[in-house]
Every structure is written in C-alpha cells, then in structure tokens.
Design goal:
Elements (H helix, E strand, L loop, with lengths): L1 H45 E4 L3 E7 L6 E2 L7 E4 L5 E7 L3 E6 L9 E2 L1 E4 L5 E12 L4 E3 L2 E3 L2 H7 L4 H20 L10 H19 L4 E13 L1 H95 L1 H14 L14 H9 L4 H6 L7
Parallel strand pairs: 6-7
Antiparallel strand pairs: 1-4, 2-3, 2-5, 6-9, 8-9, 9-12, 10-11
Helix pairs in contact: 3-4, 6-7
C-alpha cells in the first residue's frame, strides 16, 4: 500500500515539472518572436536595405549635416529615420541608351537620330550609349569624376531623370560630331568611326563630373532616305565613270608613250643598221684601198728590183759582151731541146759555140747543121 502511494506521488511531481518546463519554453519562444517583431518594426520604420549591385546616398532633411552626404553607402541594411533622412539608390550595373527606329517595332523609348550632313541631306542613325554610374567620387584613368551624390544633386534621383538627361546630352554630341560628315563620307568606316570617337570623348568629359562613366558609343546602323539613296547612287556612278574615264585616258596616254618609244626604237635600230652597213662599207673600201696600195707597193718594188737586175745585167754585159749573154740564152734553149744532130761543130770549142749561137758564123755553117723539130 505504501509503495503504491509513493509511486503515485512521484508521477504527479514529474508531470508537474514537465508542465513547468513547457511553460518556460513557450515563454522564451514568445519573447524571441516579440523581439524579432520589434526589430522588424524598427528596421521597417528606421532602416533601408541597399540591394546588391547598387550603392546608397543618404540625405539629411534638417539639422546638422543637412543635405546629401558625399560618402556612398554599401549594399545592406542602412539606418533611415522617416522625415529626417532618406536613402537614394544608385545602380552599379551597365546601362544602355538605345536610339532606334520605332517604325521597325523597336521597344526603345528613344527614336533614331536625324543627322544633317554638310551637303544638306539627312541620315537616320541608330546608335547606342553604354554607361554606368561611379560608386564614389575620385580619379579613374587620368580623369577626375564625381560620385552618386553629384549625380543626384545635378541630374536627379530617379532612373527616368538620369536616362532623359544622358540621352539629351548624347543626342546633342552625336549630332554635333556626325554632322561634320558628308553624305558620301558615311560610307567611309574610318571617317565615320573617327567622328563617333569624338562624340564619345566629349560625352566622357561632360558626364564624368556628374558621376557617369561612358563606356562606349556605338553607331549600329545608318539609313538614307530613298531620294538620297538615288542621289548617292548617281553620284557614285558619276564618280566611277569619271574614274574609269581617267584611267582610260591614262591608259591611252601610256599606250601612246609605248607606241612612241617603239617607233623611236625601230628608227634607232634602222639607223644603227644603216650605220653598221656604212661602217662595213667604209672598212671594206679602206681594206681594198690598203690592199691596192700594198699591191702597188709590191709591184713597184718588183719593178724596181727588175730594173736593178736589168741595170746590173746591162752593166755586166757592157763589160763582158752582148754576144756572151745571147749565147747563154741560146744555151738554155738548146738544153731544153731533145734529139737532133749538130754537125761541123766541136763540142769543146766554146768560142765556136758562142759564135754559132750568136749568129757570127757564116751561113754555110748554119746550112750544114740540121736541127730537127723538137718533139
């Protein structure tokens, strides 16, 4: 009996302790919920969340530090008292202003640019300006620039105000830069991109002090009016025809020069040929003259030698006698004879031979000698 009473009392005490612990846990959770609600209410009424990809700028309505603060606020929960301070958010992502033709179904709020050219025509240009806002004032790439507070103070605090202001500045600078081109110069990518670069540089100088960083200016497309296209086509055709005629004239002039050089070359060749033939004839005549002179000199030398021989012979004969000379000549003649008989003449009697051959012998001696005909 006693044990049963003891067990019942212990069970009652344990159940009582469980109830007390449950009440404590519930009270603790209720306190946490209440504190969270209070903190959420305080954060809702006295705080603002700056999202990731943006910076905040605090503005004090009155009292010490009234106005915009120059220091940017990082993403996260930032305090703000209603009626006393306000936090403006400035995005840090890339943004774009697109000037596009709305007639082609473009959703851009900005229409394409009408660019007047220096020769009085108009070109429709689709362009884009890519930019972002600086997170804080400072110096970047050699250029001083403002920050978000400068943007809000000089331009506005809303996206609409920013886009409207930047689009107006971009439109003015693009028109000012591209209007220096002629209608035909839009075809030249070097001249066209040079003018776009000038517009981009001017935009950077104007917008950087306001906290706007211009990344790039792109000319996406340009269109001519129909009558302008026809005029450009005719002008280009005339220029091509003029260039063709110029080249044709230069070719004809070059052909004339070639023909002139060829004719002059032929004349020079013929002159050289004639000069060569004349030189050949001159050389031949000089050779013939030289040969004749040498022949004449040889004949003269032979004649002189013969005259000398004859003179020497005559001198010798004048001393020896003419009959000796005649005998010698007849001896040569008799030596050439073959056959025959000579009578009444001593072969060793030379004086008789001389006299006989010289014709000094009497006719009887010649009658006695019979000389047959030579064979």
């Amino acid at each position: 009996m006693v044990s049963q009473q003891h067990l019942s009392q212990s069970s009652l005490s344990s159940s009582r302790s469980h109830r007390e612990s449950g009440k404590f846990v519930g009270s603790f959770l209720f306190l946490i919920v209440m504190m969270s609600a209070v903190l959420a209410g305080v954060a809702f009424f006295f705080g603002t969340i700056v999202p990731v990809g943006a910076v905040g700028v605090r503005k004090i309505a009155f009292g010490p530090g009234q106005g915009l603060r120059t220091k940017s606020l990082a993403p996260g929960l930032q305090w703000a008292i209603p009626g006393y301070s306000t936090i403006y958010q400035v995005p840090q992502t890339l943004r774009i202003i697109d000037f596009s033709n709305r007639d082609e179904g473009s959703a851009s709020p900005f229409d394409s640019l009408d660019i007047p050219t220096i020769d009085g025509t108009t070109v429709d240009v689709d362009a884009a300006v890519i930019y972002r806002f600086y997170a804080r004032a400072g110096r970047d790439e050699g250029m001083d620039h403002g920050g978000p507070s400068d943007l809000i103070q000089n331009v506005g605090a809303t996206d609409t105000q920013w886009a409207k202001y930047i689009s107006q500045v971009a439109e003015n600078e693009l028109k000012r830069a591209l209007s220096a081109l002629s209608t035909a110069e839009f075809y030249d990518p070097l001249a066209r991109e040079a003018r776009v670069g000038i517009a981009e540089h001017e935009l950077q100088n104007i917008l950087a002090p306001l906290g706007v960083q211009v990344q790039s200016v792109l000319l996406r497309r340009y269109r001519y009016r129909e009558e302008i296209d026809q005029a450009i086509f005719k002008k280009n055709l005339q220029e091509l025809e003029s260039a063709y005629n110029k080249v044709g004239g230069e070719f004809a002039e070059a052909q004339r020069d070639v023909n002139k050089v060829a004719s002059e070359g032929d004349v020079r060749i013929k002159n050289l040929e004639r000069q060569g033939l004349g030189m050949v004839e001159t050389i031949r005549s000089e050779g013939d003259l030289y040969r004749r002179e040498k022949y004449a000199q040889g004949d003269l030398s032979v004649a002189e030698a013969r005259a000398t021989v004859d003179k020497m012979r005559s001198d010798v004969l004048s001393k020896v006698g003419a009959d000796v000379y005649v005998a010698l000549q007849l001896a040569q003649l008799l030596a050439s004879l073959k056959g025959g008989v000579v009578t009444n003449l001593d072969p060793y009697d030379f004086d008789a031979w001389v006299k006989k051959l010289a014709g000094s012998t009497k006719n009887t001696a010649s009658e006695n000698a019979e000389v047959p005909n030579a064979r």
